[in-house]
Every structure is written in C-alpha cells, then in structure tokens.
Amino acid sequence: MQEDVKISCQKDFDEYLQTMSIKGQGGTDFRPVFNYVEQLRQKKELINLKGLIYLTDGFGTFPAKKPDYQAAFIFIAENDNNLKVPSWAIKLVLQKDEI
Asked: Cα(73)–Cα(71) distance, rounded to whole angstroms?
C-alpha cells in the first residue's frame, strides 16, 4: 500500500488531485488494501463507505469476494492492455491527460 487518503467531500477530492502522484510497478496484491479497509470499518474509522478507487496497471491478485461497497479499478489507456477486473468491480480507463 502506497497511500491512505480519506476523502469525504468534493473539496477534499479536488485538493487531493492537485498533489497526488502515481506510484508502483505492477505485481500488486490488491487483497491487503481491501483487508485494511475492512479493519478500518470494524474500528469505525470508516463509516458509511461508498467505494474504493484503486489506481492500477491491473497486474496483480484481486480479492475473490465482492466487498459490500463499490470498488473501481482505474487504468491509464496506454497501460490498459485489455486487462480484466473481477465481475463485481468497475473498470475505468482514462487517457493520460485526464489524470
């Protein structure tokens, strides 16, 4: 896991977009992040979670089970390579200039 950012309103999201950077190099195990989110939910640090947005190249191990919130995996078009996401997930492909 590279970063943990709580965004609770549009202002938070807009501010985050100004400073965010994309990190990593593939071979990701996505499961620890989903486990971490579940731990935060159990501790009541995350309440009424609507979704998780994962910026990725898609190379890695996805959770087998659908969480009880939406999960979106975001790809950059040049790295998309027609990679699959689990049937329960949202896949969004952005152009590099849309980030």
From this structure: 7
Rg (CA), the chain: 14
Q: Which two tokens stand for residue 54?
A: 């994962």
Stated as kind and residue range, the H or E segment containing 53 is strand 51-55
Residue 71 structure tokens: 């999960």
DSSP 45: S
How much is the pTM? Answer: 0.74
Q: Checking DSSP bridges between strand 51-55 and strand 70-76, what pairing results, if any?
A: parallel
Tens digit of pLDDT for each residue in 42-81? Answer: 999 888 889 998 888 888 899 999 999 999 998 887 755 6
